[in-house]
Specification:
The complex is a heterodimer of chains A (406) and B (457). Chain A is of the alpha/beta class and 406 residues long. Chain A contains 17 helices and ten strands. Chain A folds into three domains: 202 residues, NADH-ubiquinone oxidoreductase 51kDa subunit (Rossmann fold); 85 residues, Ubiquitin-like (UB roll) (Roll); 86 residues, NADH-ubiquinone oxidoreductase 51kDa subunit, iron-sulphur binding domain (de novo design (two linked rop proteins)). Chain A starts with 18 loop residues before the first helix and ends with a helix. In chain B, helix 2 packs across helix 3. In chain B, the strands form six sheets. Chain B has a seven-stranded mixed β-sheet with strand order 15-14-20-19-18-16-17, with helices on one face. With 457 residues, chain B is an alpha+beta fold. Chain B is elongated, with a radius of gyration of 27 Å. Classes of the chains: A alpha/beta (406), B alpha+beta (457). Chains A and B meet through helix 14, helix 15 and helix 16 of A and helix 2 of B.
Chain lengths: 406, 457
């Protein structure tokens, strides 16, 4: 496997979060390059690089940047999504604690491209101690005069999963209840207090300095044609060495798990993998054998790559209790705005609970799938469809385990 | 105005403004579509997901409240698939609903009941014991009671306090099926329009403390009328009922939509003014405090009229119907009386606001001005014939045509109140509005016009 350090280059250095260490290793050098580049040229480079959003959706970042108005009477804003709350995902916190200056440099480059003077970093509430590290870095950057033209404000969320959804995040940032907004009918920027706003994931922004420094082709040299570059993939669950390890898109999933994770814990057999955070569905060991870590490979088997945070499960895992665990989470975290999600997440949780308690009937399994169908594609945001897909992925692959406990 | 285009709904072509909301068209054309959260005064929120329709070319069903009409759009609101989607979402709406219709005051005017009859009719799949429990008796303040279990979280009430009154008392707390409407701890729903949330609530979650449990709504009859609380002339329904062998009683006023005047709402003071209308009514004919009959009162009236010939002054209340005011003025001329309609007593700037409440607290203020009546206070009066004017006026002798009991007068004629009579009012913006007769009391007092006829016979 090819080692790759687009985002994680400085992670292993001692005190890499401090400005002096970061600058010793080249931080903020790319700001010089902006003297020769027009904002639209920066956007072009990002477009050419094929950089895809790393918060889970994988939408092309350059196209999103291009939606931001270059001429506008209203101020433009950049909002960095650090509400990392997808179960199984813990990559952004590596960036803000181990190389916060990479993120700040990325913010400065991005703000230049979209002509924003103010950036917000929305951090999940539970990340208080990591926020302190990032705030320290921001303070150092202010003191060093790096933030003369762009302000960076850190904003801590109150712990709701849904605030990772960009429009709910913006509602929350505006001081309101974190409810996703109705989607626009045509491509347009996001809106923060009615002002054009770009929302990107931490890792997306942290990938920008590399692309500006080395060019779009250097980024495209990694990964696959459709999923260029790298991702901070992560592993948790039944592996010997759980953690975050950067890899290029397109590598074999099993090779990644074996190479970085040291294989399944205690030499057990692999049973299943949740490929990229709880909401991406579940795959069997056989599917994992054939999967590569890119958006297209997982889409082809009806799942998604998500944030690349894999949850590895060994042969002793009870899939009914895994689903119960996940559904409890969704039941707790549904924002409660749309009827199918508000009522559906509770009902499916209760149904699987009933099955797990051995009180279920085959009717309950049918009902579970029926409710999943009602939850799919009928809500404002993709929370309920994701829950629906999770249920379907479990029942289509491990139905026998559910039937065994009826 | 943007351009008119044609779209097809259920195989029928409609001409409609481009970019307008599909749900508005469906509502206007009375094409059946279930919805909880949409309201024309509050706009789309898209949370109830009930107003699903099929749109040609779209893979999934779409909500009509978030669909902007485009030329050539083909909409299907009635397919089997759509009915199934609506049924399934309604079922989810009901799984945590307490289904306590027999004790719910909304029964009979509840969207949840109506939609269940249209799209549900399924058996319960969740037992009562499994349902999520919430508070059932929350006194929000301003006569509004909240039952959190019956709530469908449509957020009409919270959006009303956010967008209409800008008082922000109500919000949603909790997530998922624990979400519920609430005020902030220690705070109350407190604004002059608060009770409109009861009308906005499509289900039995918000009910009026004033009305609930007094009458089942299917017994009520509604008459279209106008509130008499001020010169704004907000349109109302007078909801009343006359049970067998009992009297005709008004149970509530409800706002009646009129986009020219009050939109969808009325103020709480106007809404509750029916109580005053119903209490302390003048029912008997009185001479110096003693009850007399109709024959005697007309004799005494005529005697007083000839005794004070040339010294008679007529005073008119600016709440009377225009037809009544005109009849009084004509009659006054025939007996050579001076006519006054003093207005100063109706001015109350403390009542006024920027929404619906006017400082002129008389329903027909504008007619008095328009007819050019003398609006100052009369002095030095021999015989005063007072048509229900609220201010005490000094006179040697006073004849009072009165809806409500008051100070002792020489001669008192009981008269019908506005709810017991029909007529027109002109509001402060010059809009003439007709008020239907709502109530016929068992011992109904004659109208002013009828009395004038009687005393002239």
């Amino acid at each position: 496997m090819r080692e790759i350090e687009i985002v994680s280059r400085k992670f292993s250095f001692e005190n890499s979060h401090t400005l002096s260490v970061a600058q010793d290793h080249g931080a903020y050098k790319n700001l010089e390059k902006l003297k020769e580049l027009a904002p639209t040229e920066v956007i072009e480079i990002i477009k050419e690089s094929g950089l895809r959003g790393k918060g889970g959706g994988g939408a092309p970042a350059g196209a999103k940047w291009a939606l931001m108005p270059q001429e506008s009477e209203k101020p433009s804003f950049l909002v960095v999504n650090c509400d990392e709350s997808e179960p199984g995902t813990f990559k952004d916190r590596q960036i803000i604690t181990k190389d916060p200056h990479l993120l700040i440099e990325g913010i400065l480059l991005t703000c230049y491209a979209i002509k924003a003077k103010h950036a917000y970093v929305y951090i999940r509430g539970e990340y208080a101690q990591y926020q302190d590290v990032l705030q320290g870095a921001v303070d150092e950057a202010y003191a060093a005069g790096l933030l003369d033209e762009v302000d960076i404000t850190l904003h801590r969320g109150a712990g709701a999963y849904i605030c990772g959804e960009k429009s709910a995040l913006l509602e929350s940032l505006e001081g309101k209840r974190g409810h996703p907004r109705l989607k626009p009918k045509q491509p347009e920027p996001e809106w923060y207090f009615g002002n054009p706003t770009l929302v990107n994931n931490v890792e997306t922004i942290a990938s920008v300095p590399f692309i500006i420094e080395h060019g779009a082709d250097a980024y495209r040299a990694y990964g696959t044609p459709k999923s260029p570059g790298s991702l901070l993939f992560a592993m948790s669950g039944h592996v010997e060495k759980p953690g975050v390890y950067e890899a290029e898109f397109g590598v074999s999933m099993m090779e990644y798990i074996n190479h970085y994770g040291g294989g399944v814990k205690n030499g057990k057999k692999l049973k299943a993998v949740i490929p990229g955070g709880a909401s991406t569905g579940v795959m069997t060991a056989a599917e994992a054998e054939n999967a590569t870590l890119d958006y297209e490979s997982l889409r082809s088997i009806g799942l998604s790559l998500g944030t690349g945070g894999m949850i590895v499960m060994d042969e002793d895992t009870c899939m009914v209790s895994v689903l119960k665990n996940l559904l409890e989470f969704y039941h707790e975290e549904s924002c409660g705005q749309c009827t199918p999600c508000r009522e559906g997440t509770g009902w499916v949780d209760k149904l699987v609970g009933k099955i797990l308690d051995r009180r279920g009937t085959s009717e309950d399994i049918d009902r579970l799938l029926e409710v999943a169908e009602t939850m799919n594609g009928k809500t404002i945001c993709v929370f309920a469809p994701a829950v629906s897909a999770v249920i379907v992925s479990f029942l289509s692959r491990f139905r026998d385990e559910f039937e065994a406990v009826l | 105005m943007s351009k008119m285009i044609e779209i097809i709904v259920d195989n029928k072509t409609y001409s409609v403004e481009e970019g307008s909301l599909l749900i508005d068209l469906l509502i206007k054309e009375e094409i059946k579509v279930p919805y909880f959260c949409y309201h024309e005064s509050l706009g789309a929120d898209g949370n109830c997901r009930m107003c699903m329709v099929e749109i040609a070319g779209q893979k999934r069903p779409q909500i009509a409240c978030d669909t902007f009409i485009k030329a050539g759009m083909e909409v299907n609101s009635k397919s089997e698939n759509i009915n199934k989607v609506r049924t399934n979402i309604l079922e989810l709406e009901l799984i945590n609903h307490p289904v306590d219709c027999p004790t719910c005051d909304q029964a009979g005017e509840c969207s949840l009941q109506d939609f269940y009859m249209d799209y549900g009719l399924h058996d319960a799949k969740v037992s009562i014991a499994e349902k999520v429990k919430h508070e059932k008796h929350v006194d929000l303040g301003s006569n509004v009671m909240l039952d959190q279990e019956r709530c469908v979280l449509c957020t009409r009430c919270t959006r009303f306090t956010d967008k209409i009154t800008h008082t922000h008392e109500l919000g949603i707390v909790g997530r998922g099926d624990e979400a519920k409407v609430s005020t902030m701890p220690g705070r109350k729903l407190d604004n002059p329009y608060a009770m409109n949330v009861v009308d906005l609530c499509p289900v039995g979650a918000l009910t009026s403390k004033d009305f609930r449990f007094h009458q089942r709504v299917w017994f009520l009859k509604s008459a279209a009328s106008v509130c008499q609380g001020c010169a704004k002339g907000c349109n109302i329904y007078i909801d009343h009922n006359k049970p067998k062998y009992q009297d005709d009683v008004i149970y509530r006023f409800r706002p009646r939509r009129n986009d020219e005047v009050n939109g969808f709402f009325i103020c709480d003071e106007g809404r509750l003014s029916y109580k005053e209308l119903e209490t302390n009514r003048q029912e008997s004919i009185l001479f110096e405090g003693e009850v007399i009959d109709e024959m005697e009162v007309i004799e005494r009236y005529k005697a007083l009229l000839s005794q004070y010939r040339g010294e008679v002054t007529v005073v008119i209340d600016a709440n009377l119907y225009s037809e009544e005011i005109e009849a009084i003025v004509t009659y006054a001329k025939s007996i050579e009386a001076k006519v006054y309609a003093p207005l100063a007593c109706y001015d109350d700037p403390s009542f006024a606001d920027e929404m619906l409440k006017s400082a002129k607290r008389a329903a027909n203020y504008a007619t008095v001005i328009e007819m050019g009546l003398e609006t100052s206070m009369p002095t030095d009066i021999g015989l005063l014939i007072n048509f229900n004017h609220p201010t005490p006026i000094k006179a040697k002798t006073e004849i009072f045509f009165s809806t409500h009991q008051g100070d002792r007068k020489n001669l008192i004629f009981p008269i019908a109140a506005f709810s017991e009579n029909s007529g027109s009012l002109t509001n402060e913006d010059g809009i003439v509005q007709w008020c239907e007769k709502a109530v016929e009391k068992n011992s109904q007092a004659p109208t002013i016009i009828r009395w004038i006829e009687k005393v002239q016979e």
